[in-house]
Model the fold of this input.
Amino acid sequence: MIIKLEMERFTVTSSTSFEDVVAAIKAAIGHPNMAEFWQSMQIATSAFEPEAVVRAALGETGRMQFVEFDHAMIVRKGTERHASRIIPM
Done:
């Protein structure tokens, strides 16, 4: 089976450092302890409790991070680009 996947890539040029931009993004999203998060979901006894668990885990942007992978690692392998700055969103 072949699945066609379309993506859009964009570049932002900023006077703010890459590290500062990444830190600001990470500070604005929730980072729940996923073991506690899933445990709270499993012991919920009503339809309203999971919503409360999710709301408590959200950051100021209304989003949370479930997991993070270093996709740039693939780009760095076999190249001289040891400092790739790629973050898929």
User: Anything to note?
Assistant: Residues 18-28 form the longest helix (11 residues).
